[in-house]
Amino acid sequence: MSTEAFIKRKLAFYKKKHARRGGDPKRFTESMKISPAKGGVDNLLSVGNGIGDTECVTDPISDVAWNTHAHVDKETALAHIEELTALTPPVDIQTECMTSLSNTCQSGKLLDLDTPDELALRSLILGILHRTLGDFAGARKLLHDALKHYQNADPNSWVGGVTHFELAVLDMKEGDWRSVAVSEGNPAEGNTALEVWTHAIKNAKDTLAHAHALCTRETDLSSRLDSRIVMLHEEIDMKMRQLGI
Question: Full-prediction pTM beyond 0.85?
Fold first, then answer.
């Protein structure tokens, strides 16, 4: 699907949501609780391998930087988390940065996010932000929550593939962290650095296979996701050559 067609679908989605909530269709932006600047695929896809230093690549079509959420500083990441968890319904997942229910729903009040698309997108963004902060367990919970919601997503058909992709990046990021811990003699890890990497790479490759399976011609912006999958595969292969596996 072309970018133009995707944008039209998104506009129709929010106009329909606003009309369902009794609003003037011309003021549909009032029902857009997650800014397109935060929730666009351009800002979500991590670039590079997530193994070490990662470049911020410019897309030839949109000419904007990708992977915004994957490279924000701690203060900005926490601010984004606070903003997203303030939306209703509350996020029912506890992490290092989200230690209690984010908010309470007032009886009779319209929910900020009332579609599977929006719930999946919020969890996806929160998962990426938690991974950026180094809370890998929290990130994994949130990314799996995104997968739970995306099954019924309509205009955001790319969410499933992107979430699997981000889980693969998480596998590699966590593998890097665990391998460093082992190298520094952390007895809690219980494995050699090579064993840690072997496990992380297997998981990442399996997860990328799921991402690729969801990257079909019918998927919104599939060419962009496919190019990122290819890049991550190449960097995983490079890491395997470095490790001799």
Answer: no
